[in-house]
Design a protein that fits this description.
heterodimer, A: mainly alpha, two-stranded antiparallel ribbon, 63% helix, B: alpha+beta, six-stranded antiparallel barrel, six-stranded antiparallel β-barrel, 6 helices, globular, disordered N terminus
């Protein structure tokens, strides 16, 4: 008898026989990683200019693009509220901007169902740039040319970092869907 | 993966589901806009929630701060060794501190002479309310806030000045039980009355939001400032004790100067919170004229 291909009973998430996804991992990892993304910039000390990318927002966008439909469209409200507690922005700014961003991405996605990697990156770079500018405008600080110049490094860093975060999230997604639960 | 997997079909139920999602997200955005309006109108609203959140993550922040300090000193010693041994770096820092101290001493001397001439007043050293690490900052927002690991439990109150061994860092904006939020000098909403260390040239030091300070002279006319001048607190307003180093002038502009902050919070390990210098003055300034006259 021929030897059976050893990978026949496996996919990238593990053995397909007698194993299933763990509901805890499936539901907790996306939210936990966004919350971690929200908290990390708070632990970094930058005194002169805002240099750290808005990691929580970028995590949300990355999950949105890796697994469309994982987060409901209204998720900007609760997660934005969590971001407002740590970001130093006036309370409500992330609730507003994250909600608007989720609606905007949803509309773009239903308008252009077939996209390439570059198009996705470009769209989300635009979203991130608009988010950083809008956040600066409603932050309650005096907007002058100095501040607008000061956010450019953060903006470039965010745009360049996004593909890395998206790749990271796709790894986390594999962890999320790992078949660890034993059936029977 | 590129296509949206949630195109609503001919199913009524699915279409209603999508529609409800949009409505909920729209309501969320609306509530966000209202909350934003409230917090721009009254910046102190939702202070409690923020404080509790900051307190919750403060163990993580404290350990991150400790790791940061250790990492920084490691990098310092490596760079010192590469330059001319660790001692060199140590000495250089001491000389730098001494230079600031000298300027401050000069300012203090002059201040003392003036006050003594006026009032026969005796200045004595103040005791810090609390000494703490800077445990975090608003690193991704254009507002410049920092967080310290001491709060109202240690007796910290809103308005108290925060300083490092080098000079002024900022002042307390919000307190919770074990952390407080500090408005850094570089925030665009921060204004600090200063004077030149050597004489009586008075000005306001305003944050620009990009890490530098704008020095605005109060008496306009011929600009007396020079590159390299050290600005110290003047004590006007009653929050800050006079004579603490604030900034060094780096560039002269028509109505004043652009200055660099002496005490960069990134380079400081510990900060001390001092009591408000003249609580009576601050209290009076907060009162409305009617109230003050009514007493």
């Amino acid at each position: 008898m021929d030897q059976l291909n050893p990978h026949a009973r496996r996919d990238e998430y593990g053995s397909r026989i007698n194993r299933s996804h763990s509901p805890v991992l499936v539901y907790s990892i996306p939210y936990l990683t966004v919350i971690i993304g929200i908290i990390v910039p708070n632990l970094v000390l930058t005194s002169a200019v805002p240099l750290v990318p808005p990691l929580g927002f970028m995590m949300l966008l990355a999950w949105r693009i890796v697994r469309p439909g994982l987060f409901p469209i209204w998720i900007g409200f609760p997660l934005g509220m969590a971001d407002d507690l740590f970001s130093g922005q006036p309370f409500g700014s992330a609730i507003l901007l994250w909600s608007v961003a989720m609606i905007a991405i949803e509309l773009v996605e239903s308008r252009f169902p077939w996209r390439t990697y570059v198009q996705d990156w470009m769209n989300l770079s635009l979203v991130i740039a608009a988010y950083i500018f809008a956040a600066a405008l409603i932050s309650g600080s005096e907007i002058g040319y100095a501040i607008l110049l000061a956010i450019i490094p953060q903006l470039l860093l965010s745009v360049l970092l996004f593909p890395i975060i998206a790749r990271m999230v796709s790894r986390l997604d594999r962890l999320r869907l790992m078949r660890v639960k034993v059936i029977g | 993966m590129a296509s949206s997997s949630r195109r609503s079909s001919y199913s009524r139920k699915a279409q209603y589901g999508v529609f409800t999602g949009y409505v909920l997200a729209g309501i969320g955005a609306l509530i966000g806009a209202i909350l934003l309006g409230i917090s721009l109108w009254r910046p102190a609203s939702f202070e409690g929630a923020r404080g509790v959140a900051q307190d919750t993550i403060s163990p993580a922040s404290e350990s991150a701060a400790a790791a940061r300090t250790n990492g920084k000193s490691l990098i310092d010693s490596i760079s010192g060794y590469l330059a001319a041994g660790t001692q060199n770096a140590e000495l250089r820092r001491e000389v730098e501190l001494a230079r600031i101290r000298l300027k401050e001493a000069k300012a203090l001397e002059q201040e003392n002479a003036r006050l003594k001439a006026l009032l026969d007043l005796n200045e004595n050293e103040v005791e810090a309310v609390a000494v703490s690490r800077l445990i975090g900052s608003s690193a991704s927002s254009t507002r410049r806030f920092a967080y310290i690991g001491a709060g109202s439990d240690e007796g910290i109150e809103i308005g108290m000045p925060v300083r490092s061994p080098r000079g002024v860092v900022g002042r307390i904006l919000e307190t919770s039980s074990s952390t407080s939020r500090v408005l850094l000098l570089t925030d665009s909403q921060s204004v600090l009355p200063v004077r030149r260390a050597d004489d009586e040239v008075v000005a306001f030091a305003e944050g620009r939001g990009d890490g530098l300070l704008q020095i605005r002279l109060i008496n306009l006319g011929i600009n007396p400032l020079n590159v390299g001048d050290v600005m110290v607190t003047s004590g006007t307003g009653g929050f800050y004790r006079p004579g603490i180093a604030v900034a060094i002038v780096t560039e002269i502009v028509s109505d004043g100067a652009v200055a660099r902050v002496v005490s960069d919070p990134m380079a400081t390990d510990f900060v001390s919170v001092e009591p408000i210098w003249q609580p009576v003055t601050v209290q009076t300034a907060r009162q409305s004229p009617d109230e003050a006259l009514g007493e």
